[in-house]
Amino acid sequence: MPASRSTAVRRAFAALATLPLLTLAACGYGSQAPKDDVAQVAAGAKKIDGLDTVSIGYFGNLTHGTALVGIQKGLFQKELGGTRAKYTTFNAGPSEIEALNGGSIDIGWIGPSPAINGFTKADGANLRIIGGSASGGVKLVVNPDKIRSLKDVKGKKIATPQLGNTQDVAFLNWIAEQGWKVDAQSGKGDVSVVRTDNSIAPDAYKSGAVDGAWVPEPTASKLVAEGAKVLLDEADLWPDKKFVITNIVVRQEFLKEHPDVVEAVLRGSVKTNAYIHAHPDEARAAANAQLKADSGKALPANVLDPAWQSIQFVDDPLAATLSTEAEHAVKAGLLEKPRLDGIYDLTLLNKVLKAAGEPEVDDAGLGAE
């Protein structure tokens, strides 16, 4: 491969690690946020494996709703007993992967692209995906005065969050399926793909700098609040309308040394998702309360409500869709074909699901031996 092409692929591969990052403080991309909190432990509660604390990372955004609700309602700490849950928020996939690699966190909620990137860069030696968390929550929203049908997207300026991120790859793949041509690196072609941080996407839309955006929630609903219309929900492009947007990952060393602690966190996650399904209004309010606690700012109802409704909270990591997302990145020329064998270890999740009377989930042939 020529040096220039190799460099471009490496840069795009690095960009792929950044996910839909909807941190409410900045609504964009950046380094680790300053929050660093330790949950309160009930008096007399026993530690698991004698472990004092488990460090857990997540993003302050709605696609990490399982973490938001579980923390706000104390469901993780309840399962952990006397082992304290120490929480750290992030606003970028690379910074969370760096923290995981460095041992600053043990378990984290994170999206598919940084999980793939973290796994492949470490030659499969550091992280494992141990559970699912969320599906969906990504939409193509457009200016209805300029775009009235899908065919009208041709020739228009459409924003995505960042070169090579999950939504950018999905949009490039959709463009190719229409038979249109776009240079993945420059974004130029039959459609102008304008890489625009979520923090400025609403202003870019209001100013007319872009005609629409392929973005995750709550950015999509923020644009709708500015007058945009939903032209396409990405879920409609996937079998059963499901595709992975958030997973749970763990350091392999921590998994080996403290499987009971990992199982407790997974049990908390499964119970949190059950709570979300049984009490949707209360769960939505809890997620918003945690967002406010993390960032100092809650989402208004006209953004929160539609954004929350478009996200499905699931225990299944939807492994087959992870492989498909990686294939889309390869087809777009943004990623060299990765080896994903062993990226999943769903043993403990399936144990928790069985105990809860729920069906086991599949790793699509990508499980650890």
TrEMBL record:
Signal peptide: 1-25
InterPro entries in alphabetical order: ABC_SsuA_sub-bd (IPR010067), NrtA/CpmA_ABC-bd_dom (IPR044527)
NCBIfam families: SsuA_fam
PANTHER family named among the record's database cross-references: ALIPHATIC SULFONATES-BINDING PROTEIN-RELATED (PTHR30024), TAURINE-BINDING PERIPLASMIC PROTEIN (PTHR30024:SF47)
Keywords: Cell inner membrane, Cell membrane, Membrane, Signal, Transport
Subcellular location: Cell inner membrane; Periplasm
Transmembrane stretches, start-end: none
Species this chain originates from: Streptomyces heilongjiangensis
Coiled-coil portions: none
Entry keyword Transport: yes
Recorded family membership: Belongs to the bacterial solute-binding protein SsuA/TauA family.
Top-level taxon in the UniProt lineage: Bacteria
Protein name: Aliphatic sulfonate ABC transporter substrate-binding protein
Chief site of localization: membrane
